[in-house]
């Protein structure tokens, strides 16, 4: 056991701050906040049935999410369509422009991640370990 190394939580927190600092300029170039990008990425898989379901899936307060959704809709990146099964409910989904924007940002982030983890074998092992732990 390596008692001299920092705890995993401490290392993950430092890494998280470093990754956020790496992503922020990319998001700024695209005119999005981190939460807006999180929303676009969550909706990439397909429509979400309610704002509350989206908030829960990304760990956001649903009341704080509404202005983000309003802005994304105003910018033409997401749609809020009535659910044919229940007209009181809105289906949230990406527009074609929202899909394009999400892919462009993710591509730039992946390039920055590749620069951070230059060795492909180390990168694959790290990603696998993160998936296993989360």
From TrEMBL:
GO biological process assignments: response to stress
PANTHER family given for it?
MARR FAMILY REGULATORY PROTEIN, TRANSCRIPTIONAL REGULATOR, MARR FAMILY
Q: Which InterPro entries match?
A: HTH_MarR-typ, MarR/SlyA-like, WH-like_DNA-bd_sf, WH_DNA-bd_sf
Source species, domain of life = Bacteria
Q: Where is the secretion signal located?
A: none
Q: What is this protein called?
A: Transcriptional regulator, MarR family protein
Alphabetically, the GO molecular function entries are: DNA-binding transcription factor activity
């Amino acid at each position: 056991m390596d008692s001299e190394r920092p705890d995993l939580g401490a290392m993950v927190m430092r890494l998280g701050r470093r990754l956020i600092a790496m992503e922020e300029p990319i998001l700024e170039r695209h005119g999005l906040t981190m939460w807006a990008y999180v929303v676009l990425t969550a909706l990439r898989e397909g429509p979400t049935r309610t704002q509350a379901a989206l908030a829960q899936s990304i760990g956001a307060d649903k009341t704080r999410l509404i202005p983000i959704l309003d802005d994304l809709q105003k910018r033409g990146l997401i749609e809020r369509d009535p659910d044919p099964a229940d007209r009181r409910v809105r289906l949230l989904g990406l527009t074609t422009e929202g899909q394009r924007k999400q892919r462009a940002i993710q591509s730039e982030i992946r390039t920055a991640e590749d620069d951070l983890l230059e060795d492909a074998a180390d990168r694959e092992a790290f990603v696998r370990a993160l998936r296993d732990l989360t």
